[in-house]
Amino acid sequence: MKQPPPTRRDRTGRGLHASSWMKIMALRIPRAPHSVPRMLLWFLITLPLIVTEPAPAQELQWEPLGTGMAAAVWKPGARCSEIDRVLALKVDPERYRFAVHFYAQEGLLHPPTIDEWQRRTGHDVLFNAGLFRENFAYLGLLFKEGHSLGSRRHGTWQGLFVAEPTSATAAPKAGVLDLATDAFQEQMPAYREAAQSLMLLDRAGMIRVRQSGKRAYQTVVAEEHDGHILILKSLGLVTLHGLGQCLRDTVPSIKLAMAMDGGSSSDLFVAESLWKHGDQSDTRTSWKELFAGRSTAHIPLPAIISLSPREAAPGAATPPSKP
Q1: What integer is the mean pLDDT of 77-93?
Q2: Which of 78, 106, 122, 213 could bridge 55 with an S-S bond, Cβ 3.0-4.6 Å?
Q3: Is the pLDDT of residue 21 over 70?
Q4: Can you say whether residue 301 is alpha, beta or left, with left for phi > 0 and alpha for psi between -120 and 50 degrees?
C-alpha cells in the first residue's frame, strides 16, 4: 500500500505536505547570523549594472580662437571605445571664407606639405581635401573660384563639400551636399569652391561607409543643423565606420558628414598665432602643439582647403569669442 507523503506542521498546527513545504522554503531567504542591511544588499546587487553602464561622452569644451571660430580636443568616452582623442574645429561660415588650393593649378611642380601651404597662402587654418592618386591627380570633383580643376565626378562617392555660393540668394556660405539626393550642376555650379569625397553620415543618420576593420587617421568635415562647419581629425588610428557611428551617437548637432582623405594624408593645421588671445594655460599650450601638427609628420598634399576671415586680411586674428 502506497504511503502518503510525510507532513510537517505550520505555526497554526495544520499539516503541510512535503512538496508544499519545499515550495515555501524556496521562497524564503535564509538569514545569516550577521544579516546584510537591506540598502547594502541592494547596492551589491546593482553595482555590476552601475560599473558596466557606458560613461557619457565628454562634452566638447570649446576654446575661442576668434570671432566665429573655436577649437577643442574631444574625448568621446566609453560609448566610442575605439576613439581616443579627436581634434575639433568649429567654424561659422558667415565669418570665415573657405578656399580650395591645388598645387598644379598654382603652377607648382610638387605638392607642398600643409605647413608649406600655410606659408604660401598666409591662411592660419588649413586641412586636407579629398583623395588623390599616386601621381597626385585629385579623385573626384574639385572646383576653385567656379572653375573645374580638371577632375571628374567620382561615380560612387556621394559627399561634396561646397563653399561660396555664386548667387546672392539665401544659400549657406558653406556646407556638405549628399549627391545621392542633392543636385550639383558642373556646367553651372551653385558654389565657387567644391571638393568631392566619401559620404559618411546622411540626413537620416545612416553610416554610408562599410565596416572594413581598416584603421587609419581620419579627417571629417561635418555640417551642423545651425549651419556651423565642424572639421575633425582623429589623433589615433580608427575605423571610418567606427568614427561615423561615434559622431552619430554622441554629436546630435551634426546634420551631414563626409570623410576626406585618411591615413598619412589626414591633416589639420591651426597656426599658433590664433592662440595668442585668452589665458595661456597648460591646456591651451598643449592644444596649440597638437593643432600645429608638432606630434605628427606631414606629407605632401596636392589639394587643401584653407580658411580666412571675411572681415579681415588673410591670416589676421580677431578678438576671441565663442562661435
Answers
A1: 93
A2: 78
A3: no
A4: beta
Buried b (16+ CB within 10 A) or exposed e, 237-264: ebbbbbbbbbbbebbeebbbbbbbbbee
Q: Percentage of residues in the chain with pLDDT exceeding 90?
A: 65
Among 27-41, 124-138, 268-282, the least confident range: 27-41
**pLDDT the model gives residue 169:** 74
CB atoms within 10 A of CB 6: 10
Q: What pTM, to 2 d.p., does this model score? A: 0.78
The amino acid that residue 102 corresponds to is F
What is the rounded CA–CA span in Å between residue 148 and residue 144?
7
- From the number of C-beta atoms within 10 Å of its C-beta (0-12, 13-18, 19+), residue 38 rates as exposed
User: In DSSP terms, which residues pair with 258 in a beta bridge?
Assistant: 199, 221
Work out the pLDDT band at 220, boundaries 50, 70, 90: very high
Average pLDDT, the chain: 82
Confidence of residue 278 (pLDDT cuts 50, 70, 90): low
One DSSP character per residue, 297-315 reads: -----SEEEEEEESSS-TT
Under 8 Å between Cβ of 170 and 130: no
- How many CA atoms does the CB half-sphere of 125 hold within 13 Å? 23
C-alpha to C-alpha distance for 41 and 63, rounded to whole angstroms = 45
Asked if 77 and 58 count as a contact pair (C-beta separation under 8 A), the reply is yes
d(CA 169, CA 310): 18
3-state SS track over 155-189:
CCCCEEEEEEECCCCCCCCEEEEECCCCCCCCCCC
